[in-house]
Each structure stands twice: as structure tokens, then as C-alpha cells.
Design brief:
The chain has about 350 residues and is α+β, with helices and mostly antiparallel strands. It has 3 domains: about 80 residues, Winged helix-like DNA-binding domain superfamily/Winged helix DNA-binding domain (Arc Repressor Mutant, subunit A), CATH 1.10.10; about 160 residues, Beta-Lactamase (2-Layer Sandwich); about 100 residues, Enolase-like, domain 1, CATH 3.30.390. Helix content is about 45%, strand content about 15%. It is built from 12 helices and 10 strands. The strands form 3 sheets. The protein has a 5-stranded antiparallel sheet with strand order 7-3-10-9-8. The chain has a 3-stranded antiparallel sheet with strand order 4-5-6. α1 crosses α4 and α5 packs parallel to α12. The longest helix has 21 residues. The protein is elongated. The two termini are about 40 Å apart.
């Protein structure tokens, strides 16, 4: 996504960097005199004004009003992020919070919910995590918990150690001992067979075995079928959000129409999932500025929203994406390394959790 800007010299780049930094900090259009007062630019006010006018003509800056200072455009932000940005490593306190969060057991959706809330807390924007798809994080172990009547809780443990569960209603009675033996049998098959292919493996065993185990195998077959059906009915990758209401605190979304449009996107989630799915093919942080993301195509949001995202995974397998979504005027220098570190720590925790 990097772009080249051979037409910009050292001075133009320094002034653009200073102006973007000031605008991110203040949210106000930047004029030449305040820019000189806050930065060592080694040039006159007239030179700064001329350079700002040139940058505006090239599409890197815009002037909201005839008498105002200038603000960065999407193109200006992109050049800033790609070639002018000096990232700031996370503080010791931030690093400690991320490392402690990653050390928590990855049980159920808690890991993803906690990570989304952590990203929100650190960034003061919306934290987002997409959960692994079953195809990228298959089931490696099953457990069954007998409830009352014919109801059973099926507990799934994925390759990454993520624990989820589904409630099943059996068509026949199974006592606790039968459930335990069925789970042991199915887990033995899961060591070499994907969950979706268990049915054929069990049928092969049933054809070969006409002993007293045949009845248990028949029950295990139906149990496996119901388990696969439950997994198939479960949604694929899901979007977990933290701090959606924080968008209302950003001046950019003070307009009711803009705030409503963004909150609607968070509620529907499909659009966010499409944006973050693009990150799955990457091995590093991706930044979508303004119109570069599908969120910008929503009415009232053109150019107003940016996404800083990174993939997380287990070993060489990419499982999902985590991100911060906020106004285009976000502190990229701070947020990019925060998102990157969070993704790496979550990946390390998931990988460590599956070691023998």
C-alpha cells in the first residue's frame, strides 16, 4: 500500500510530517505561524506558506475554509504513514498489560472479548477481534457433559486451545459412562480424522466390528453426526467489539448522521468482517485510511474512518485479525506498534497453549 512521492523534497516532507502531527494532536486546521512555533523547520513563514500551497495542489493537504489553515487529506495521511511516520514503541506499562492479557487461558470467547476490550482501553478507539474460522482452527478434542433428560453439552477444544460448546438434544438415552466411552472413541479418531469426516470412519468401524461394541458405535455415530451438525450451524468467523460507544467521544463523529452510520456498521459487522478478512493474507500490520476501507463507502463516513489491523495465529497458521477502528485523525505512531505487539503476543500465547 506504500506510495512513492518523488516530487516531494526534504523540506516538503518535513513540513507535511509536522502538519499531520499537529493536526492529529489538535484536530484544528494548521496555519504556518503555529507550525513554525512548534517545530524546528529552518525556513521562513513565507516558505512554509508556499510549501503548504504546493502540498495542497498535489492533493496532500486541503483547506476547509478560505481563511483557515490546512488539514491532511487521505493521500497526505497515506504518505505520512508509509514514509514519514516515526513509530513510538509501547511503554513498559502498555507492554505489561498486553503480555498479562496474552497469558490468560484462551477459554471460550473470553480471550477475544478481553483482547477487544484491551485494544479499546489502550487506544481509546474501538477494539475489534475476528474469531478463527473452523477450517483454520479445527477441533482436536471433544468432551460431553450429561445434563438432565436427553440433553448433552458438547465441549469443543480447537487446535489453538480455544474452548467452545454447543447444546445437543439426543434422540436416545446415554448414561455418563457411555458418554465418556464415546468421547474417548471419537477423540481417538480425531487424532487422524477431521471432525467433518468422522461419520465415514465410524461406519467403517461398524462394518468391521459386530461385537458388543456395535451398540456403542451406533450411538457414537449419531452423537458425532449431531456434533458435526451443531458445528456446521455455528457461525464462522465472528466479530467481537470493545468500546463501540467511544466513537461518540470523537469530534469527527459529533455529527449525528456520522455517528449513527458508524454504529450501524458495528451492529451489522459484515462490512467490518470483509475489511478485516483482507488482513488474513498478510503477515504484518495493515493500515486502511479513509476511503481505502469499505467503511468509508457508508453514507456520511467518506474519509472519516481508519483501521489499523494485524493478523494473529498459531505457528504458521493465520487464525484471525485484531484491529483498532477510529477516526482518520488517529495517533498512528502509537497505535501501529500497539496493534502489532498485541497480535504477536496473542499468537505466542495460542502457539504455546498447544505445545505438548
Amino acid at each position: 500500500m506504500a506510495q512513492e512521492a518523488p516530487e516531494l523534497g526534504r523540506r516538503e516532507r518535513e513540513i507535511l510530517r509536522a502538519l499531520v502531527q499537529d493536526y492529529i494532536h489538535t484536530g484544528e486546521p494548521v496555519a504556518s505561524q503555529p507550525l513554525l512555533a512548534r517545530h524546528e523547520l529552518d525556513c521562513s513563514p513565507a516558505t512554509v506558506r508556499n510549501v503548504m500551497a504546493d502540498l495542497e495542489a498535489l492533493g496532500y493537504l486541503a483547506k476547509p475554509h478560505a481563511s483557515s489553515g490546512r488539514i491532511p487529506t487521505g493521500r497526505g495521511y497515506r504518505l505520512y504513514v508509509d514514509t514519514l511516520l516515526k513509530v513510538r514503541p509501547p511503554s513498559a506499562q502498555e507492554r505489561g498489560r498486553i503480555e498479562r492479557a496474552a497469558q490468560s487461558p484462551p477459554a471460550g470467547g473470553a480471550l477475544f472479548e478481553d483482547t477487544a476490550e484491551l485494544l479499546h482501553s489502550l487506544s481509546h478507539h474501538v477494539g475489534v477481534v475476528t474469531t478463527p474460522r473452523p477450517v483454520s482452527d479445527p477441533v482436536r478434542q471433544l468432551e460431553f457433559v450429561r445434563l438432565r433428560e436427553h440433553r448433552v453439552l458438547a465441549v469443543f477444544v480447537s487446535q489453538a486451545g480455544i474452548v467452545t460448546n454447543q447444546l445437543l438434544t439426543l434422540e436416545f438415552a446415554m448414561d455418563a459412562g457411555e458418554l465418556e466411552r464415546a468421547a474417548g472413541y471419537l477423540n481417538e479418531k480425531l487424532a487422524t480424522t477431521p471432525l467433518q469426516a468422522l461419520r465415514e470412519r465410524i461406519l467403517e468401524d461398524m462394518r468391521a466390528d459386530q461385537s458388543e461394541l456395535h451398540g456403542l458405535l451406533a450411538k457414537a455415530l449419531r452423537l458425532a453426526e449431531q456434533t458435526v451438525e451443531a458445528q456446521g450451524a455455528a457461525p464462522g468467523s465472528q466479530v467481537v467489539l470493545g468500546g463501540e460507544a467511544s466513537v461518540l467521544d470523537a469530534p469527527e463523529f459529533a455529527d449525528v448522521g456520522k455517528a449513527r452510520a458508524l454504529l450501524r456498521a458495528f451492529a451489522e459487522k459484515d462490512r467490518i468482517l470483509r475489511v478485516l478478512d483482507r488482513v488474513l493474507h498478510s503477515r504484518e500490520v495493515q493500515i486502511y485510511i479513509g476511503a481505502e476501507s469499505e467503511l468509508a463507502s457508508l453514507p456520511d463516513l467518506t474519509g472519516e474512518v481508519s483501521v489499523v489491523a494485524a493478523p494473529y495465529g498459531r505457528g504458521d497458521s493465520v487464525l484471525g485479525t485484531l484491529a483498532v477502528i477510529g477516526p482518520t485523525r488517529m495517533n498512528y505512531a502509537r497505535l501501529i506498534p500497539l496493534v502489532d505487539l498485541t497480535a504477536r503476543e496473542i499468537s505466542r500465547a495460542l502457539s504455546a497453549g498447544t505445545e505438548p
